[in-house]
């Protein structure tokens, strides 16, 4: 009979174990999220990442070994970005009707998100790879990772910053917009999607369907705009 | 399933090729998304072909961030060193961006005398 250590060393080298572990960790994270009543602080991605990071540390597994299995999930980020065409297409009539306010909110939100992040970070003495990883943090993750890579940032660090931005946006948006006295669901949802991408969009859908549709639209449009804004802002502050 | 997958991958492949060929600052998949929207406009039948797969992928979008997010294990030193500064950066910039975006929308809507959807 083969002993457990041998089986483990065989499995730990192949992609099957870590692909399965990724899906299990996400399933656990999603179950926690549902159990917590879909509160934004119980983010399933954050829970899954914490579980996997702990598992890698416990089993002394290097990240590249893990990634050989997880890359099959990671690859889908590209097709997922392309698939964002669908919600954008579905909302095209809305876009035509409110084109100018949407354009103003998109440009303002996108520029403020990138410029304030880079400016404040610069004031704290953050430079180089970390600064470049921050610039695209309001864009949806698949897009932000691509931009970060092109700017000389670290895609894995950007992934973490993007997720944290989404969680912060999802928690802050309702009290913030109430305090500002903004009642238009289109303005509320759209600004949330621009600044806090998919996690903010999920939150907007919980609050109001119109806010949700406009948040998805904001996320999709900012994915395109951030690709242009982030390199410009970074050049300005470097 | 296969035609839908082919459409998404084809648009992504076209996007990647075009950004590399032209030196555009866009990530390939973002250009792929714009190409697919143009495809929807030219061939409206594409929308129904792509919809089930696109909704399936977008419905589980969060899962796709997990492998990259787990890369945090390589950045624990960075995060510990810059932790408080990064927390301030993320909170302040996100709050400013949401507030400024929503105010810009309502200001322009008011200028154009549009009815609010509240």
TrEMBL record, chain A:
Membrane-spanning intervals of the chain: 12-29, 41-59, 71-89, 101-124, 157-177, 211-234
InterPro entries registered for this protein in UniProt: CidB/LrgB (IPR007300)
Record-linked Pfam families: LrgB
GO CC terms: membrane
UniProt subcellular location: Membrane
Membrane topology: Multi-pass membrane protein
Record keywords, A-Z: Membrane, Transmembrane, Transmembrane helix
Domain of life, per lineage: Bacteria
The UniProt record lists the keyword Transmembrane helix: yes
Record flagged with keyword Membrane: yes
Protein name from the UniProt record: LrgB family protein
Automatic annotation (TrEMBL), chain B:
Record-level GO cellular component terms: plasma membrane
Protein name, entry field: CidA/LrgA family protein
Domain of life: Bacteria
Membrane topology label: Multi-pass membrane protein
Chief site of localization: membrane
Lineage, broadest ranks: Bacteria, Pseudomonadati, Pseudomonadota, Alphaproteobacteria, Rhodobacterales
Annotated localization: Cell membrane
Transmembrane annotation, as ranges: 31-50, 57-79, 85-109
InterPro entries the record matches: LrgA/CidA
Keywords tagged on the record: Cell membrane, Membrane, Transmembrane, Transmembrane helix
A Pfam match: LrgA
Coiled-coil spans in chain: none
């Amino acid at each position: 009979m083969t002993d457990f250590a041998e089986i483990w060393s065989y499995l730990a080298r192949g992609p099957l174990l870590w692909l399965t572990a990724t899906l299990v960790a996400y399933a656990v994270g999603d179950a926690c999220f549902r159990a917590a009543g879909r509160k934004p602080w119980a983010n399933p991605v954050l829970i899954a990442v914490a579980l996997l990071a702990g598992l890698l540390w416990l089993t002394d597994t290097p990240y590249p070994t893990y990634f050989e299995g997880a890359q099959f999930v990671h690859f889908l980020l590209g097709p997922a970005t392309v698939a964002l065409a669908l919600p954008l297409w579905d909302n095209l009539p809305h876009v035509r009707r409110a084109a100018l306010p949407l354009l103003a909110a998109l440009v303002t939100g996108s520029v403020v998100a990138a410029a304030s992040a880079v400016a404040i970070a610069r004031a704290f003495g953050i430079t180089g790879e970390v600064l470049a990883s921050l610039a695209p943090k309001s864009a949806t993750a698949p897009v932000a990772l691509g931009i970060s890579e092109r700017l000389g940032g670290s895609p894995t660090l950007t992934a973490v910053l993007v997720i944290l931005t989404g969680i912060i946006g999802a928690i802050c948006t309702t009290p913030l917009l109430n305090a500002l006295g903004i009642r238009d669901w289109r303005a509320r949802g759209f600004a949330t999607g621009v600044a806090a991408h998919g996690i903010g969009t999920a939150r907007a859908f919980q609050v109001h369907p119109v806010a949700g549709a406009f948040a998805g639209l904001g996320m999709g449009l900012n994915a395109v705009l951030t690709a242009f804004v982030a390199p410009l802002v970074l050049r300005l502050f470097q | 399933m296969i035609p839908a997958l082919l459409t998404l991958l084809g648009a992504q492949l076209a996007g990647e090729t075009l950004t590399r060929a032209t030196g555009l600052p866009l990530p390939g998949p973002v250009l792929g998304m714009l190409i697919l929207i143009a495809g929807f406009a030219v061939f409206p039948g594409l929308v129904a072909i792509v919809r089930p797969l696109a909704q399936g992928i977008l419905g589980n979008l969060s899962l796709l961030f997990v492998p990259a997010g787990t890369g945090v294990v390589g950045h624990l030193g960075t995060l510990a060193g810059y932790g408080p500064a990064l927390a301030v950066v993320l909170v302040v910039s996100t709050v400013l961006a949401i507030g400024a975006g929503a105010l810009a929308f309502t200001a322009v809507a008011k200028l154009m005398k549009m009815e609010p959807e509240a």
